[in-house]
Amino acid sequence: MSRKPLIAGNWKMNMTPAESVVLSQGISNRYSRGWNKVDVVLCPPTIDLRSVYTVLDFDKSNIDVGAQNCHWEPSGAYTGETSIPMLQDVGANWCIVGHSERREYFGETDSMVNKKVRALAEAGLNAIVCVGESLAVRDAGEASRFVCDQVRAALAGLDAAEAAFATIAYEPIWAIGTGRTATPEQAEEIAAAIRATVADLVGEQAASAMRVLYGGSMKPANADGFLECPDIDGGLIGGASLKVEDFTALVEIAAKHAE
Ligand code: PEP
Fold first, then answer.
1. What is the pLDDT of residues 219-243, one digit of tens each?
2. Where are the alpha helices (DSSP H) in the chain?
3. Whether 71 is catalytic
4. Tens digits of residue pLDDT in 108-149
5. Is 171 tagged catalytic?
6. Separation of 9 CA from ligand 1 center, angstroms?
7. Pocket of ligand 1, beta carbon within 6 A
């Protein structure tokens, strides 16, 4: 099955609302016809979602907006959290879940990731579910087992229709923001194992339709190697998503691979 590539930008905790208007406008200005071969999602900080959505909506671009986190309950006494209905209200139709920084610094567990993925599917939002091993796990030869266990936990209890709202991003922790990338061979090996795990959970058809992304210091200079891999369908981009030139170059490269 041919899957449409997806390039998603994770801005992390960067860009004020005013700066987010400039960056999203810069990206939108470069929008070209070839881009409809690629799904493009910008994931700014929560406070920027409305401004970024407004820019993209005004430009009538096909670029989508995503959050970097959500709570699984629709409302309630959860100080500091943002619900899925709130995200929908400001135009987000994607949400990153289980990023390694949230797991490491904010104690996000596999069970919380699963609750978020289920709540997003129920609301009809797309989840970008991040999985990835530490260097210690890789060095112990356990990368594939560890990552596939994370996938099983994240998708637990979902049927094929619900799993269709999920995209898996394989992000080896040792490659995030470090300038050190996995090799395309290492990334493909894990992406294929992820797809086999998804097939085991929700069936071959759902697995062959599901997009698996690579993330970890992806930039225009190294993107070709990853996007050529049969089980890698795009990228989750951190640092390079903050630069108009780099991010738009990555979308162009993905469009070329979609041809
Ligand atoms: C990320 O944080 O999801 C990421 C891939 O970051 P970077 O591209 O900066 O490694």
1. 999 999 999 999 999 999 999 999 9
2. 17-29, 49-58, 84-89, 100-106, 110-123, 135-139, 143-155, 160-163, 184-202, 204-209, 220-227, 244-258
3. no
4. 999 999 999 999 999 999 999 999 999 999 999 999 999 999
5. yes
6. 9
7. 10, 171, 176-177, 215-218, 236-240
